[in-house]
Amino acid sequence: MKLKMTLLGLVVGGILTTAAEVEKPWLDSTLTEGDRVEMLLKVMTLKEKIGQLNQSHFGRNSNPNNVTSTPPDAGKGVSGSILYMSESPETRNALQRHLVTKSRLGIPAIFGYDVIHGLKTIFPVPLAQGASFNPALTKSGCAVAAEESCKVGIDWTFSPMIDIGHDPRWGRVVEGYGEDPWLTSVFAVAAVQGYQGDSRADLKRPDKVAACLKHFAGYGASEGGRDYHYTSIPLQELFDIYLPPYKAGVDAGAVTIMSAFNDISGAPASANNFLETEVLRNRWKFDGFIVSDWASVVQLINQGFAKDAAEASERALKAGTDMDMVDGLYIAHLEKLVENGQLPVSVIDESVRRILRIKFRKGLFDNPYVTVYPETERFLKPEYRALAKQSAIESFVLLENKNELLPLDVTKVKTIALVGPGADDDDGMNGSWVGHGNPKDVITLKAALEKQYGSRIKIIYEKGCDYTAKTTDFTKVLNAAEQADVTIACLGEPHSWSGENRSRSGIYLPGSQNEMITALKKTGKPVVSLLFTGRPLELRTVKENSDAMMIAWYPGTEAGNALTDVLFGVESPSGKLTISFPEYVGQIPVHYRRRPPSRHSPIGDYIDGPTKPLYTFGDGKTYTEFKYSNLRLDRTVADKNTTIKATVTVTNTGKKAAKETVLWFINDPYATHNTRPIKELKHFSKSFIKPGESIDVTFEINAGTVFSYPDADGKMHFDAGDIHLMVGNLKTKIECVE
Ligand code: GLC
Questions:
Q1: pLDDT tens profile 70-108
Q2: Residue 589 DSSP code
Q3: If you compute the radius of gyration of the chain from its CA atoms, what whole number of angstroms results?
Q4: Angstrom distance (rounded) from CA 599 to CA 443
Q5: How far is the CA of 448 from the centre of ligand 1 (A)?
Q6: What one-character-per-residue DSSP string does 235-252 give?
Q7: Among residues 178, 206, 504, 571, which is most buried (max CB within 10 A)?
């Protein structure tokens, strides 16, 4: 009955329309996309056009910020899009059937949802995926997410989030791939291809969804890590740090972009003409559409960029925000703005054109409905789980391994004390933005240890403490440790402390976890600390009191199975940090890609603390050692049209096979237009290397691309002069000539 009432309340284009048959020549799929768009656009009424610019929502999600006061329904003039939070394909088809059959022109809606790192099969959070340095796994994972999403009726995911995160106080660093623009660009492309396919034609496939690059742009620079706050971004940094991943995503064919909440140096992103029109449309020729973030149009009033809702609507649309997410402002105000001459219909037409274009490209006019599969055939297929497990395995970052405590030897370890709030935290393993992930599908470390090793090893489980509650009683935990050969301490942050609207003023380990690890150390038994977290944390105490320490992030559905494989050496860890871990929160920002200071103080950067972060970009150990040697170039002089072949030999000098990610950085010590970072990642590749094996790893350097840098106008420059190339512990120099 509820659905029926909702459907009845569903109006299209803001008006109840009859289902009178009209000619629909645009449904001829042999016509070009452009012709189909123009045929339809020219017969649409103003109300019908404005309806396309509106996104309503159906169902509720868990984000406390997104649950409106009134029961959300799809009844407010929806015809453009539905933010679809249900997981019923039947309901989705019913909503779509109403729109298509009961409306005058039968324009299908596009159904969007936040599928950030999986729909039902939950993959590691994106910050963990970045740490794998394996974009192919992200591409495959996004393809799985797309397949599962289509099974519930989603056509469009609000992903990948490609904001550069320099400040771990900001809760949303978990959703991005880290602090580096190049790495984030590579993962942006992988995600877009995973979601949409490798070609424009692939997007029509019933197992592909439209991608959405977000949040455009500079959201990660929120002042003080405070979500939703002002971002002061000089134009040169905008082009150097924040925009490259978007350019890469657009060039990879992403069909939608989401505007951001933040005010960018005085012009909020959701009404920022320079970004949304000059850069995106005029320079990059982006032909998709921009959807606002949740109510970011009406929020322009809060930011003082509009005096009222009408002005907010006008400014956002004119700047280039084509679709209004859920605040209903476009539906309520655009028609009057046109009638009183403030808003030319041509502006509306252009936004409608972009939205229709993507609907045709997605194939929604040709196939408005999704196939309804039996529940048992939709999700969590074994191959999906296997992929999620591999992604988790490759995301773990081993930061300490004193006396090579890890991997554990199953023939020697007789008793394990498994302690801490993360050991059996099924809900937590999925992290934030979990699509329709269900904790009951998660394999926790406790479950995996008991299942796989319980017959050979005694597992003593004592939670010991919560993530955040204070306690001083560690009796049970210490008793367990006393009986064990090794203690595995599962520490970190509750997953609810990560994500949107989850900024912190400190990044200390909450609760009494530091006290617990200190007490455990005193038992004299070896301790392996695992950190479940969506952000860098202050880990001084954990480092001091642990023999091994590994960042596990939020590893997703296969968490426990991935962890046991790495803990017992079935696979060596291969993750590296893509975001720096400050030793003290006061060091923030402390990312690696910094500009050189005018001088280095002999006492360091602080009189009361360390200069360097505790761990930096690229840190990560494994169960063997790699030696870099014989860095050589096929030429050492280059103009902007030169391709240089750089090669380095990497040798596994240890006893265990492992994967090594080879990171190539440059340093431009002198640039004519503006300063350059002390080092910049420009290439990486990951290889499996057996013990004793040596391999050659190459980097084909297109000098004009790799050595150029943007100025404040976004113009790229290639200077004459030396460029340093660094890989591993080796360094060489290339002379650039005009
Ligand atoms: C949220 C987020 C955005 C998300 C959108 C829809 O507030 O900022 O990332 O896609 O609303 O849920």
A1: 334 444 455 799 999 999 999 999 989 988 988 899 999
A2: S
A3: 27
A4: 51
A5: 33
A6: HHHIIIIISHHHHHHHHT
A7: 178
Asked if 133 contacts 576 with a C-beta cutoff of 8 angstroms, the reply is yes
pTM greater than 0.70: yes
**Residue 294 Cα to ligand 1 middle (Å):** 6
Contacts of 373 (CB under 8 A, 6+ apart): 89, 151
Confirm whether 293 is a catalytic residue.
Answer: yes
Q: In angstroms, what is the span from residue 171 Cα to ligand 1's centroid? A: 13
pLDDT category, 224, cuts 50, 70, 90? very high
Among 705, 698, 706, CA closest to 724: 706
Q: Extract the tokens encoding 468.
A: 């955040």
CA of 398 to the centre of ligand 1 (A): 32
In this structure, the dihedral spanned by the alpha carbons of residues 385, 139, 183 and 386, taken in order and rounded to 10 degrees, is 20
- Beta bridge pairs of residue 398: 550, 621
- Report d(CA 97, CA 4) in Å as an integer: 12
User: Residue 443: is its pLDDT beyond 70?
Assistant: yes
Q: Which atom of ligand 1 is nearest to the CA of 112?
A: 6
Higher pLDDT, residue 711 or 99: 711
CA pair distance 512, 2, nearest whole angstrom: 47
To the nearest 10 degrees (0 to 180), the angle between helices 475-483 and 513-521 is 40
Residue 549: exposed, middle, or buried by beta-carbon count in 10 A (0-12, 13-18, 19+)? buried
Q: Rounded to an integer, what is the distance from CA 624 to the centroid of its chain?
A: 30
By the 8 A CB rule, do 153 and 370 touch? yes
Pocket test for ligand 1, best of 162, 293, 296, 327 (most atoms within 8 A of CB): 293
Which amino acid, 589? P
For ligand 1, atom 3: residue with the closest CA: 293
Question: Average pLDDT of 307-327?
Answer: 97
Query: 298 C-alpha to center of ligand 1: Å?
Result: 15
Rounded Cα distance between 203 and 197, Å, is 6
Question: Is the omega angle on the peptide bond into residue 332 within 30 degrees of 0, that is, cis?
Answer: no
Q: Whose alpha carbon is nearest atom 11 of ligand 1?
A: 294
Q: Which residue has the tokens 């006396």?
A: 403
What number of residues does the chain have?
738
Taking CA atoms only, the protein residue closest to ligand 1 atom 1 is 294
Q: How far is CA 239 from CA 42, 218, 289, 330, in A?
A: 38, 10, 21, 31
Spatial distance between the Cα atoms of 581 and 588, rounded to a whole number of angstroms: 9
Closest by Cα among 392, 550, 435, 431 to 171: 431
Q: Which residues are within 8 A (CB) of 383 and not within 5 positions of it... i.e. 6 or more apart?
A: none
Ligand 1 pocket by C-beta < 6 Å: which residues? 65-66, 114, 158, 214, 293-294, 500
Hey, which of 113, 149, 158 would you mutate to test ligand 1's pocket, going by the most ligand atoms within 8 Å of its Cβ?
158
Provide φ and ψ at 88, rounded to 5°. -105, 115
C-alpha dist (Å) from residue 165 to 154, 176, 240, 704: 28, 7, 14, 27
User: pLDDT per residue over 648-703, tens digit each?
Assistant: 999 999 999 999 999 999 999 999 999 999 999 999 999 999 999 999 999 999 99
Type of residue at 579 = I
Q: Give residue-wise pLDDT tens across range 249-285.
A: 999 999 999 999 999 999 999 999 999 999 999 999 9
326 contacts 112 by C-beta, under 8 angstroms: no
In three-state secondary structure terms, 69 is: coil
- Which is it for the CA torsion 176, 182, 186, 189, positive or negative? positive
Q: Where are the alpha helices (DSSP H) in 20-134?
A: 33-41, 46-52, 89-102, 126-132
**Interatomic CA distance for residues 202 and 199, integer angstroms:** 5
Is the Cβ–Cβ distance between 185 and 246 less than 8 Å? no
